[in-house]
UniProtKB/TrEMBL annotation:
Keyword Transit peptide assigned: yes
Pfam families xrefs: Acyl-CoA_dh_1, Acyl-CoA_dh_M, Acyl-CoA_dh_N
Domain Acyl-CoA oxidase/dehydrogenase middle: 131-222
Cofactor(s) needed: FAD
Stated name of the protein: glutaryl-CoA dehydrogenase (ETF)
EC number: 1.3.8.6
Domain of life: Bacteria
SUPFAM superfamilies the UniProt entry points to: Acyl-CoA dehydrogenase C-terminal domain-like, Acyl-CoA dehydrogenase NM domain-like
Organism whose genome encodes this protein: Orlajensenia flava
Family: Belongs to the acyl-CoA dehydrogenase family.
């Protein structure tokens, strides 16, 4: 299992045999199934849907959920899977996150037993894909300003509104749609994407997440039965619980992208010669590599600490904000410094660094920008909310 970066700091010693097995499975999947095709898929803006059954067979979809055909793995094991998938490409960690941490978690946390039995086993097997429709075109970081509505009409609900940056929506079978009811209360609904009035349009022109799918969604008088409402979801705390699941995965995932960039820089420092010697023999280069490595290992130790807290049921949203803010910010800095060490070749697809850097810019924005997580932590530290 050891990579270059593992030889200095033995993180494996802090893991269980089961956790190492999940990591090995994810690393093998990323190495054999994603890395050979990811540069072409990124270039061609192609989402390789045929990998979904293989992800399901490996047990990665909703793997942290207990029962209903899900693996019931621990938080650290799930984090390690996110880490390995994002070391290949952020788009594939995002797929596992949208499917498992958002859509499946919404059903597992807030759904009825009938809804759980109807959807979770199929989603775990990759037979059904879900999406999580919360963000709106004008809302972004302010979901409380949600304008999508749900009104009662006899025994049905009728949904109207628009969502943006909804991962997987154009290939999903079911959308978890968040809307305000007539009393202004946020509710969740399971909406078949085949429903009349539901339209998902992939967003084009992206310079990041090109091997992934994000969509604009419109809901025009979409009618669903009363049984489509998630009975335990009431208020913004319901979608936020799911967002925290996704943010937790990012804590580990972003460090996977950082690891890939760091490994590329280390490898190149040994083979690229300038002024008669490998650049790795230069003090400035070794200093840069050391700084990158220290931030990577700090990020991994933070991720592991948060995972152990999560397994004890002791983790808080503020702690997750610490992890998301640190991991993505430091991963981007590692990517930028790696690109510089690679010289001009660093902007080509001979190395994964520019692809990771572009993807991390997107990861930095979704599931809470740096500024939002800073304000979450500021509120935790001062007791004063400064969001408005």
């Amino acid at each position: 299992m050891s990579l270059i970066v593992d030889t200095v700091f033995d993180l494996d010693a802090l893991l269980t045999d089961e956790e190492r097995a999940w990591q090995a499975r994810a690393r093998a999947f990323a190495t054999e199934r994603i890395l050979p095709i990811i540069d072409a898929d990124f270039e061609n803006k192609h989402f390789r849907r045929e990998l979904v059954p293989a992800l399901a067979e490996a047990g990665f979809l909703g793997m942290h959920i207990e029962g209903y055909g899900c693996a019931g793995a621990g938080a650290v094991a799930y984090g390690l899977v996110c880490h390995e998938l994002e070391a290949a490409d952020s788009g594939w960690r995002t797929f596992v996150s949208v499917q498992g941490s958002l859509a499946m978690s919404a059903i597992a946390k807030h759904g009825s037993e009938q809804q759980k039995h109807e959807w979770l086993p199929r989603m775990a097997r990759g037979e059904a894909i879900g999406c999580f429709a919360l963000t709106e075109p004008a809302g972004g970081s302010d979901p409380a300003a949600m304008s999508t509505t749900a009104r009662r009409d006899g025994d049905d609900w009728v949904l109207d509104g628009a969502k943006r940056w909804i991962g997987l929506a154009s290939i999903a079978d079911v959308a978890v749609v968040w809307a305000k009811d007539e009393d202004g209360v946020v509710r969740g609904f399971l909406v078949p994407t085949s429903a009349d009035g539901f339209t998902a349009t992939p967003i084009d022109g992206k310079f990041a997440m090109r091997a992934s799918i994000q969509c604009d969604v419109t809901l025009e008088s979409v009618r669903v039965p009363a049984s489509a409402m998630l009975p335990e979801a009431r208020g913004l705390s319901a979608p936020f619980q799911c967002l925290n699941e996704a943010r937790y995965g990012i804590v580990w995932g972003a460090m996977g992208a950082a690891r890939s960039c760091l490994e590329a820089a280390i490898g190149r420092s040994r083979t690229r010669e300038v002024f008669g010697a490998p650049i790795g023999a230069r003090q400035l280069v070794q200093g840069a590599l050391a700084d990158m490595f220290v931030e990577y290992e700090k990020g991994m130790l933070l991720a592991l600490h948060l995972g152990r807290l999560k397994e004890r049921g002791a983790i808080t949203p503020a702690q997750i904000s610490v992890g998301k803010l640190n991991s993505v910010r430091e991963a981007l800095e590692i990517a930028h410094r790696a690109r510089a060490l690679l010289g001009g070749d660093g902007i080509t697809d001979a190395f994964p660094v520019m692809r990771h850097a572009a993807n991390l810019e997107a990861v930095r924005t979704y599931e809470g920008t740096d500024e939002i997580h800073q304000l979450v932590l500021g509120r935790e530290l001062t007791g004063i909310a400064a969001f408005s």
